[in-house]
Amino acid sequence: MQVLLFRSLVAAAILAVALPQEAAAGTTAALESVNYGAFTQTATYSVANQLGFFIAYGLNVTFLQVPNSTYGYAQLLNGGYDIMTGTIDNAVNFRFNSNDSLTVTGQLDQGPELTVASIPNITSVAQLKGLSLMVDSAVSGYAYILRKVLALYGLHLEDGDYSFQVVGSTITRYADLVAGQLPNGTAVYATILTYPFTSEASVVPVDQRPNILARVSDFIQPFTSSAFTVRNQALSNTTQRALIRTFMAAMYSANQFLADPAQKNCSIAAIANQLNVSTAAATSAYSSAIDPLTGETSSPGSNFTVNRQGLLNVIDVRSQFDGFTEVLAGFNFAEAILPSAGNLIDSSVRDEALNATVQYSPISC
Ligand SMILES: *[C@@H]1O[C@H](CO)[C@@H](O)[C@H](O)[C@H]1NC(C)=O
Ligand SMILES: *[C@@H]1O[C@H](CO)[C@@H](O)[C@H](O)[C@H]1NC(C)=O
Ligand SMILES: *[C@@H]1O[C@H](CO)[C@@H](O)[C@H](O)[C@H]1NC(C)=O
Ligand SMILES: *[C@@H]1O[C@H](CO)[C@@H](O)[C@H](O)[C@H]1NC(C)=O
Ligand SMILES: *[C@@H]1O[C@H](CO)[C@@H](O)[C@H](O)[C@H]1NC(C)=O
Ligand SMILES: *[C@@H]1O[C@H](CO)[C@@H](O)[C@H](O)[C@H]1NC(C)=O
Ligand SMILES: *[C@@H]1O[C@H](CO)[C@@H](O)[C@H](O)[C@H]1NC(C)=O
Ligand SMILES: *[C@@H]1O[C@H](CO)[C@@H](O)[C@H](O)[C@H]1NC(C)=O
Ligand SMILES: *[C@@H]1O[C@H](CO)[C@@H](O)[C@H](O)[C@H]1NC(C)=O
Ligand SMILES: *[C@@H]1O[C@H](CO)[C@@H](O)[C@H](O)[C@H]1NC(C)=O
Hints:
This protein has 2 domains: about 240 residues, Periplasmic binding protein-like II (D-Maltodextrin-Binding Protein, domain 2, 3-Layer(aba) Sandwich), CATH 3.40.190.10; about 100 residues, D-Maltodextrin-Binding Protein, domain 2 (3-Layer(aba) Sandwich), CATH 3.40.190. It is built from 15 helices and 10 strands. Helix 11 packs across helix 12. Bound molecules: 2-acetamido-2-deoxy-beta-D-glucopyranose (10 copies).
């Protein structure tokens, strides 16, 4: 059933764009390749990929799963990825601490489904005392928000109330949490989950189902999370800049489709097919993707603008845990986060992308 639906969706999407092109040019235009690095398959990506938006924009997007942030951002800088989406704290860290040449070109979401989740027999944050908690990196943004939430419950990493297991990105941590152990048999207890894993967790058989101990949005909000990120050099190369512009335009069109309540069922089907999950899990994921506070349609103006307050909160949480050790005294954060060419955020390619959208509606869902 799901497979059939998936095939008909893809067939419809290909037909929708291939026919007019063939009619016009007598041949199917070659697609441009994009290497897209990402930690999770967001709802916007699912819609863009499943419903033919990338093809309509002439793109052949290869989704490259980021295994961990250290590796992912190195890939971005060395040209392995043309563009990536990752939580903006990484860009803040690599840029302000290490002066790495990367730039944020827009915000995708404000941390949908960011939760502290545990194995079934742990039912409160207090029970995490004395345990080791899974993180991507001990100095990554999600480790800091885990510390922030736990600190509000009186548990402090620096006091030895708990420790960290460095395991990898959310997709790995989720699999380990449901299994109750790392591949080598070490027990696991809790971690931070993000979209779509909190939704996926909600439909896991009850004896393995993770508990949601806390929602980050109850403690920190707004909170800017996934952001489009590129290496600086790509912005000054005409070919690479055009590819980034087209990718962001396709994602923007898909994001508007996602935001349209009339397309709800179609978006849910796209999410279900992309993630290979049940309609129940996809419906839950859809709800978080369109959440006005945390979702993928929550950026100011719904146009990939970075929420300044959300970014200030990211910087605030990192500061609280001494996460700016390499930043010189007197550094002007307020000015450094103004969107401008050469700064952390440069929205000019986003501005161009909004002008480069094409008319496209998936034939049927
Ligand atoms: C898309 O890119 C992949 C990997 O580079 C390639 O194998 C595939 O043939 C391409 N598809 C199209 C339709 O261009
Ligand atoms: C990150 O991923 C790379 C590539 O898969 C791997 O070689 C490396 O060991 C990983 N690092 C951590 C800390 O897991
Ligand atoms: C950061 O790197 C840029 C080049 O990418 C360089 O111009 C600048 O001087 C560096 N700043 C510091 C503080 O090292
Ligand atoms: C939960 O189960 C794990 C593994 O079976 C065990 O090590 C741990 O002590 C249990 N924790 C609680 C709070 O019951
Ligand atoms: C199991 O794997 C984790 C994460 O890679 C590692 O930190 C730990 O030392 C390993 N434990 C054993 C007993 O090999
Ligand atoms: C711009 O990028 C293209 C495609 O990656 C590359 O072939 C070209 O050499 C680059 N141009 C410059 C001036 O670096
Ligand atoms: C959307 O799906 C629901 C539940 O399956 C169904 O009741 C409703 O009629 C559908 N709406 C449209 C517009 O197809
Ligand atoms: C989708 O999930 C089903 C069952 O959960 C599994 O059997 C199937 O292999 C998965 N398909 C893909 C393409 O991963
Ligand atoms: C995006 O939305 C913001 C906030 O509403 C608005 O100020 C800005 O002009 C919009 N940008 C574009 C390029 O449409
Ligand atoms: C987008 O289009 C508008 C209207 O044509 C124009 O005023 C604006 O300069 C364009 N912006 C960019 C960044 O191309």
